[in-house]
Every structure is written in structure tokens, then in C-alpha cells.
Amino acid sequence: MAVMCFDIGGTGVKSAVIDQDKQIRQKESIPTPDNLDGLLDWMDSCLKKTDVEAISISFPGAVDPIAGIIGGISAVEYIHGVSWYELLSRYQLPIFMENDANCVGLSQLAMEESSDTFFCVVCGTGIGGAVIIDRRLIRGPKAYAGEFGCMVLGGYEPPVQNWSQIASTGSLVRYVKRHSQTKNQNWNGRKIFEEAQNGDSVCQEAVEQMVQNFALGLMNLYYVLDPEVIYIGGGISQNEVFIAMVQAKLQQMVAEYDGFPEVPLIQSCSFHQDANLMGAYMNTLQ
Fold first, then answer.
1. Average pLDDT in the 127-136 region?
2. DSSP code at position 3
3. Is 22 helix (H, G, I), strand (E, B) or coil?
4. Model-wide pTM > 0.85
5. Which residues pair with 128 in a beta bridge?
6. How does residue 154 score in pLDDT terms, banded at 50, 70 and 90?
7. H-only helix segments in the chain
8. Is 258 exposed, middle or buried (0-12, 13-18, 19+ CB in 10 A)?
9. Which neighbouring-strand residues pair with 118?
């Protein structure tokens, strides 16, 4: 079945045609349109270029696949509160919808035939993720499954901070902006890692703190379900230095604390920037 897959993001939108051979074809991308009509016009132009048998979309926000409505909030405000089944009804095609972090998790089903039960942790401005058990996405009755970023580490004394607030790329940037003497830098995760490797002490402290908090959260998750592997998604997953640091920290934790009997297996997600597109396709097989 050939599927037109869309990835709706805060800065850019992508499309591609994917079928049973799981190859990404006719990939296109543009900056995220300013309004709903602009997005629908672009989607229409993509759909007119080829014959497909279904449409599948990766969305930010809380996706209700029954009603076809995106709840919550996201960086793309106009996608919320409208029925996407109604918006796309004129194509007379099956419509599939899923949350973007869940799509990253689903994308691994296209690669890892041997992995039946795994977590996917998507690290960016915050932390999200997906739970896959027996090769099925687990959403939960309120679609909260995989909202790993809500996990609280470090106790309940104020100010309470969840995992997203202390272990995401966003937390890394906030730490450096608070502590760096260089106030006018356009800090981002990549620049902070580069400056840390160049010897900047504030960036080094920020990276070490993030890695420690990130590894601790992964260790907690591992002992919830005993997944075969925990995949790391988001832009930082392509940073081999970060992945190696997290692996080393997990090994250190097991060596220093008897309560952690085993080191979790972690790996970067396979499809990187195309994970949401491939996950949208794999969602049609769920």
C-alpha cells in the first residue's frame, strides 16, 4: 500500500511516499506555513503528484485518532481543535494520525525485526517518547503512555522539576544561558557540546549535569518494563559523543550501586530526521 506520509513540525513540514518496501520516495519539505489554509494547500499539491492509497500524518500535540482532533498545545497552533478527518475527507482515502514522538518509536519497527518490546525516548526542547510492547504501540486510555518527560527526579521539594526540565536539550541551553558570561550567544545543543569539547567550563558542567540526569531517567525506565533496548531520538541522538557519555554514565551507575544489576542497552534511532515520516507509515500497519 502506497501511503502519502506527512510530518508536521514547528519549523518545517515534510512529505514522502512510502510503501511496503519501506523506502522513502518523493520527499519534499518546506518551512511550516503560517496558517491552516497554507498547510492544506501544500499537502494538496503533494497529493496531486502521485496516486496513493492512504494518508498518514505525524503531529505534535495530543492526537485523538478516533475523533481526528489534535488536543493540547504545540508550536503549530492552528492544527488544534479541528477535525482532520473532515479537512481531508475530499480525498476519500483512509486517514491515519499519530503523535510525533510515538511516530519516532513506530519507525523502529521498520528496522528492528528482532526487537518486540522497547522504549523510545525523544530528547529535544523537552522529552517525550513511545512504548512498544509485542510490536504494538501502547497509548493508554488518555494517551499518556510514553510521556516520560513528566517523570519527577530528585524529590518533591519545591521547586519540583520533571525529567524534561532537567535532562532535555532545552535544559542544557537554559543552564548555559543562566551561567555563561557570554550573554549574546545563540546557544543550542550542538554549539554547547562543541564549546564543552573546546574547554568551556560552563558548557562542560551543563553537559555533565544533563548526561547524569538523562542516564538516571533511562535507568528508572529500564526497570519499569525490562525493554530489549531503549532507542534515543531527537536531534541529539545523532551526537555520538552524547550517546557514548550516556552509555559510560549508565555503566558507572551499575558499578557504583548494587540496586542497578544491569546496564540498559541504548541505541540511536535509525531514521534520524526521517523518523516521523517512517513512523507515520508504520502507524498504518498498526
1. 96
2. E
3. coil
4. yes
5. 122
6. confident
7. 36-47, 84-87, 100-107, 163-167, 169-179, 189-197, 201-225, 240-256, 275-283
8. exposed
9. 132, 229
Rg (CA), the chain: 20
Strands across the sheet with 12-18, in order? 24-31, 12-18, 3-8, 54-59, 95-99
Q: What is the Cα–Cα distance from 4 to 21, expressed in whole angstroms?
A: 14
Dump the DSSP string for 144-181: -TT-GGG-B-S-SSSSP-BHHHHHSHHHHHHHHHHH-S
Residues of the chain above pLDDT 90, percent: 87
Which grid coordinates belong to 20?
A: 511496503
For 50, the grid coordinates are: 502521485
Dump strand ranges (E) for 9-88: 12-18, 24-31, 54-59, 62-64, 69-71
Do the Cβ atoms of 280 and 103 come closer than 8 Å?
Answer: yes
**Cβ distance 116 to 137 under 8 Å?**
no
- Range list of H helices, 65-168: 84-87, 100-107, 163-167
Q: CA-CA-CA-CA torsion for 24, 30, 31, 33, nearest 10 degrees?
A: -110
The DSSP letter of residue 140 is -
Element (H, E) at 129: strand 127-133
Q: 512529505: which residue's cell? A: 15
Three-state DSSP class for residue 196: helix
Whether 286 has a pLDDT exceeding 70, the answer reads yes
Residue 165: closest CA among 128, 139, 126, 202: 126
